[in-house]
Design goal:
Largest sheet: 4 strands, antiparallel
Strand content: 15-25%
Subunit structure: Homopentamer.
Number of strands: 18
Radius of gyration: 41 Å
Shape: flat
Oligomer: single chain
Domain Flagellar hook-associated protein 2 C-terminal: 216-454
Keywords: Bacterial flagellum, Cell projection, Cilium, Coiled coil, Flagellum, Secreted
Domain Flagellar hook-associated protein 2 N-terminal: 10-106
Strand order of the largest sheet: 1-14-3-11
Organism: Solirubrobacter pauli
Structural class: alpha+beta
Distance between the termini: 48 Å
Number of domains: 3
Number of helices: 11
Length: 469
């Protein structure tokens, strides 16, 4: 255990004295750090509200998007597990029937394999001509003593290869099976083993061979003659519709395509999302406005509380946002959200939400308004001519709060400046404490040395006096 010699001359515990003096100085740093915690939380609270306000802007802009209001066709299959369909555009309205008796499949060849002690390579290509254009010819390196799995892994790792490879077990014997990466009669391929390393060999097993016209699909459209496409993804049997064959049908599957129409369900969801985003701002901001500070806070948790308590700026923002959301707009087919069944909760229901300034949606009235004349609902949000729609009005107001020069953005920048000042202040306080600690140590050391010298001189004088006759 180390022995401290501090204060031996004076009898004082100088290290303890210096430590206590430094603790007094540290309280100044702690005070600044507490303010730092509070201002950081103040900024975080503003950021949380800003994020929710930006969500309101996004929801508003979504309602002015041209794609939302564009009439589109839809198509559906009576059995999507067997036949799936997607509208490509400009499809004929009405129904078609499709029967599938065979799916298109890939060409396949299987081989017995003997590994050799010399490295080599295998070459794969579609068809029989290694020099034909578009045959996806590719070489696969085969290391010496490569296993079947090594060969399969090397092939499957090549995205441009014309085949996939699988290792299969036939009793105790392993074989490798190559399957074309496309389907149909023209998916057959060749395997060139001429450069396979000496000692290695591939011997084809006819049991795995699949080639010819039976690789094509077999379908009937609207009861017509059988057709045999080479793919299961078809874009020409029903003009404007992509048909994906997924299984054999036991009876004709009906594919129905509608007239172009707007997606009223999606529109209603987008309107509801706007109201939900607004209510989220109300909830978050009211929570901050009502959370009180802890007067004697010492913990980080307590210091963070109530940083926006009673904040007049945020209270004003909520009032203005509500006025913007419920604003009446003239010159359009509808005057505001109230025409869509959106407003403050009725008396006696959700009274707390009403006092907070939240809005509710009457879904039946909303959907009825969209179904009655969706173009009027579109104009309400998108505007017409020189008249701004509600989407732009809401987005403009949110911009005054969260934009580059917005009020909330400005307050957050002020917090950043304050926090930088605190950081600089803490750095200076720490530097000053370090200097002060060195000064005190030097001062006490000098005092101890002077006392020690004095005590030594006193002892000498005493000894001299004692020797006098």
């Amino acid at each position: 255990m180390p022995i401290s010699l501090t204060g031996m001359a004076s009898g004082l515990d100088t290290e303890s004295i210096i430590s206590q003096l430094m603790q007094l100085e540290q309280t100044k740093v702690t005070a600044v750090q507490k303010r730092q915690t509070q201002v950081t939380q103040h900024k975080n609270d503003l950021q949380a509200i800003k994020t929710k306000l930006d969500a309101v802007k996004t929801a508003a802009n979504d309602l002015s998007s041209a794609s939302l209001w564009k009439p589109v066709q839809t198509t559906a299959s009576s059995d999507p597990t067997k036949i799936d369909v997607t509208v490509l555009g400009g499809a004929g309205i009405g129904g078609n029937s499709i029967e599938v008796s065979r799916l298109a499949s890939s060409a396949q060849h299987g081989f017995n394999y003997t590994a050799g002690a010399n490295a080599g390579k295998l070459t794969f290509y579609y068809g029989n001509d290694p020099n034909a254009a578009g045959n996806s010819k590719i070489d696969i390196d085969v290391p010496a003593n490569a296993t079947l799995q090594d060969v399969a892994t090397a092939i499957n790792a090549k995205d441009g290869a014309p085949v996939y490879a699988a290792v299969v077990k036939n009793g105790t014997t392993e074989q490798i099976v190559f399957s074309s990466r496309k389907t149909g009669a023209n998916s057959d391929f060749s395997v060139d083993t001429s450069q396979l390393g000496a000692g290695s060999a591939l011997a084809e097993d006819p049991a795995y061979t699949r080639t010819g016209a039976t690789l094509n699909a077999a379908i009937k459209v609207n009861g017509g003659a059988e057709i045999n496409p080479e793919s299961n993804i078809l874009e020409n049997i029903i003009p404007g519709v992509r048909v994906s064959l997924k299984g054999i049908t036991s009876s004709p599957v009906t594919v129905t395509t509608t007239q172009p129409a707007v997606n009223t369900e999606d529109i209603a969801k987008k309107v509801t999302a706007l109201v939900d985003a607004y209510n989220a701002v109300v909830t978050a901001t009211r929570s901050e406005l009502t959370e009180k500070r802890v007067p004697t806070a010492t913990t980080t948790s307590d210091l963070q509380k109530g940083q926006l308590f009673g904040d007049t700026g945020m209270a004003s923002m909520l009032n203005s946002l509500k006025e913007t959301m419920t604003k009446a707009i003239s010159g359009l087919g509808l005057t505001g959200l109230s025409d869509l069944g959106i407003g403050v909760p009725k008396a006696g229901t959700n009274s707390e939400d009403a006092r907070a300034g939240k809005l509710t949606v009457d879904q039946e009235k909303l959907k009825a308004a969209i179904a009655n004349d969706y173009t009027k609902v579109k104009e309400l949000f998108s505007g017409q001519g020189a008249t701004k729609g509600l989407s732009a009005v809401i987005a403009d107001y949110v911009g005054t709060q969260t934009g580059t020069n917005g009020i909330i953005t400005g307050r957050m920048k002020t917090d950043d400046t304050t926090l930088k000042g605190f950081t600089d202040q803490i750095t200076k306080l720490n530097e000053r404490m370090e200097v002060e600690q060195k000064r005190l140590k030097a001062q006490f050391a000098a005092m101890e040395k002077a006392l020690s010298n004095s005590q030594t001189q006193q002892a000498w004088l005493t000894s001299q006096i004692a020797t006098l006759p």
